[in-house]
Specification:
It is a single chain. The protein is mainly alpha-helical. It has two domains: 39 residues; 97 residues, no CATH class. It contains seven helices and no strands. It is elongated, with a radius of gyration of 21 Å.
Length: 145
């Protein structure tokens, strides 16, 4: 596709700098425009869709591993019953567009966050087989990215 998304954004940023900014009288408006231009420069526009798909896939796989570990033990299933219900409510299948992908990523991320406290509680019981601790690390690293 020509121009690429990154090229389009580059042109928009240039127009904002060369055409819009000189017409602004307010220092506040100029500062806000500089923030907008900087924000536009921070996204890798050509790969944004691919990165979104990778993020969703990573979250799906992590939550799938969590679900399998939880469901492999009846005591864990009882402890994480609410989390299993949340996992069951997650969307599956193909993502139709960028907005839907963003919504899916947000929903998966919310379920990851909701799983952390119950997992911390589980680990404090001393019943962990080592997998819970490893999954906790993966969940936390997903949240801080």
């Amino acid at each position: 596709m020509r121009p690429t998304p990154a090229e389009l954004i580059s042109h928009v940023r240039r127009i904002l700098r060369d055409v819009v900014e000189p017409e602004l009288d307010s220092a506040y408006a100029k500062a806000r425009l500089a923030e907008i231009r900087a924000t536009l420069a921070q996204v890798e526009w050509d790969d944004a869709g691919l990165q979104l798909a990778r993020d969703v896939t990573t979250l799906r796989e992590l939550l799938s591993r969590c679900r399998q570990w939880i469901e492999s033990d009846e005591v864990r299933k009882a402890h994480f019953a609410d989390n299993l219900a949340l996992m069951a409510s997650l969307p599956h299948g193909a993502i139709e567009d960028f907005a839907a992908g963003n919504g899916t990523r947000v929903r998966y991320h919310e379920v990851v966050i909701a799983l952390i406290d119950p997992l911390e509680d589980w680990l404090s019981t001393g019943q962990d087989d080592g997998t819970g601790l490893r999954l906790r690390g993966e969940l936390l690293s997903t949240v801080v990215r």
